[in-house]
Amino acid sequence: MAEDAIHIVGGGLAGSEAAWQIACAGIGVVIHEMRPVQQTPAHKTDALAELVCSNSFRSDDAFGNAVGLLHEEMRRAGSLIMSAADAHKLPAGGALAVDRDRFAAEVTRRLAHHPLVMIVRGEITALPPPAWGSAIIATGPLTSAALSAAISELTGEAELAFFDAIAPIVYRDSIDAAVTWRQSRYDKTGPGGTGADYINCPMDKDAYDSFVDALLAAEKAPMHAWEAATPYFEGCLPIEVMAERGRDTLRFGPMKPVGLSNPHAGGTRPYAVVQLRQDNALGTLWNMVGFQTKLKHGEQRRVLHMIPGLAQAEFARLGGLHRNTFLNSPKLLDRQLRLRAAPRLRFAGQITGCEGYVESAAMGLIAGRAAAAERRGRGWLAPPPTTALGALVGHITGGHVSAGDGTGAAPSFQPMNVNFGLFPPLAEPPARGRKGGSERGVAKKQALSERALADLAPWLAGTAPGSASGRHGDGFG
Ligand SMILES: Cc1cc2nc3c(=O)[nH]c(=O)nc-3n(C[C@H](O)[C@H](O)[C@H](O)COP(=O)(O)OP(=O)(O)OC[C@H]3O[C@@H](n4cnc5c(N)ncnc54)[C@H](O)[C@@H]3O)c2cc1C
């Protein structure tokens, strides 16, 4: 193995894809994978790219679903993960489901047989040594304790999370403006706000009582054994746990109505309020404040649709609480997924703050290509923000709003699946079709996907606008 090989810690979805991209660029790569010497609480085999839970890569519709579009972009970028998934797919309607054992065996075999790839088994317990040169850390949501401690020492304890407590995120254009209104509590402007930074959903006593009853009766998602042993932080209790503590707990917590007056009801104070706060710089996604929940996804939709103003809400992501290791990436990483404080270290996969098998592999693809270009001494540009790959990089490294950017939002970076809310809006939205909103939504997704694939082509070819001399050296075929 050449001395200038790039080292990757973690041979999961992201590490395997990064390794493949680097090897295909003609550069040696060493994958350090701790299994089977040491297992994680969720993995069961020694295969690379093991799927720890579901066997689905979700929708494969490239023109109607953002993750389907991501599949297509990754295929066009020569992804190993997508090629192995396509080779071992199972019947699953519009979804891409795979035979998990054959899928992981194929990824492992193709990497193990590649002349430029070496696989070393064993836990890496400290940061990659400087002697390795540039390295990619792709150790996932269940990064081993020793390495987590080393990362946290480098980044600062507050910048590496070990649990995600996610409140549902709603598409702005699915919130009913005839019922809701914009107002910050007591009209406070704060450091960068306007006094009207929140969308408020009002409830009268009957609506509140029905909502609490529905929450208490709704089915909760089961916890993994090791998650059940991790106590909730008091500061981010799930709403159903708050409801169990007392009928008025929510009304004195995240649903408190003080400092708010409903213009649709003569300026009176509602009995309770659900607030939403802008979640991305584009203003397309809004976060339900304090509404982290462990309810099953179907139950979340049913119960949250009871909230006035959210009857037709479409969710970019539903709530959840999981064991997860992830960086405060917007602060820590640059557009090439390098640690600003130590640029020889790149991160890839779920630890960067994306969510899901496909998204994790996609961020492996990006880290691998960027590392390969750097090793070749070439410039490299992140994919255009109009592509699914670029939208994800944008979310991770800068798309999220934070205090001080004029929105008044507190910094609260949370992992996210790819979704069309992360894409810049179309210059010309499609006209309303005969069947109204849903037909227009379909046309909008199609137009966003067509734009993405058109913009991806020059990026893959290394001729995207903005590249030095019209080339950014990414087309290393
Ligand atoms: C319990 C659980 C269930 C999930 N279910 C789903 C699901 O159904 N669908 C979905 O889309 N996503 C799911 N996810 C989220 C996420 O998509 C997966 O975790 C995905 O595998 C992340 O990819 P990754 O490459 O970032 O990490 P991983 O695929 O976990 O790969 C990380 C690798 O690094 C290795 N490693 C860790 N520490 C070290 C170390 N110190 N030294 C060497 N190697 C190390 C691990 O053994 C592992 O092989 C789930 C996550 C968890 C935790």
Biggest sheet, open or closed, and with what strands and sense?
6 strands, mixed
Give a list of the ligands: flavin-adenine dinucleotide
Structural class estimated from helices and strands:
alpha+beta
Which segments are poorly predicted (pLDDT under 50) over 5 or more consecutive residues?
403-410, 468-477
Shape: globular
Tell me the radius of gyration. 23 Å
Number of strand elements: 17
Mean pLDDT: 90
Instruction: Please write the string of helix (H) and strand (E) elements.
Output: EHEEHHEEHEEHEEEEHHHEEHEEHEEHHH
- Sheet-strand content, in percent, reads 15-25%
- Neighbour order of strands in the largest sheet: 6-2-1-7-17-16
- Kindly, what is the distance between the CA atoms of the first and last residues, rounded to a whole number of angstroms? 21 Å
Count of helix runs: 13
Percent helix, as a range, is 25-40%
Model description:
By secondary structure, this protein is of the alpha+beta class. The chain is built from 13 helices and 17 strands. It has helices at residues 13-24, 66-76, 80-87, 100-112, 145-155, 205-217, 225-228, 239-245, 297-304, 329-332, 357-375, 388-399, 437-461; strands at residues 6-9, 29-33, 56-59, 89-90, 95-98, 117-121, 135-137, 160-166, 169-171, 181-182, 198-203, 272-278, 285-288, 315-317, 320-327, 338-339, 342-347. A six-stranded mixed sheet has the order 6-2-1-7-17-16, covered by helices on one side. A six-stranded antiparallel sheet has the order 10-11-12-13-9-14. Strand 4 and strand 5 (95-98) form a beta hairpin. Helix 1 (13-24) runs parallel beside helix 11. The longest helix is centred in the last third of the chain and has 25 residues, at 437-461. It is globular, with a radius of gyration of 23 Å. The structure holds flavin-adenine dinucleotide. Flavin-adenine dinucleotide binds next to helix 1, strand 2 and helix 11.
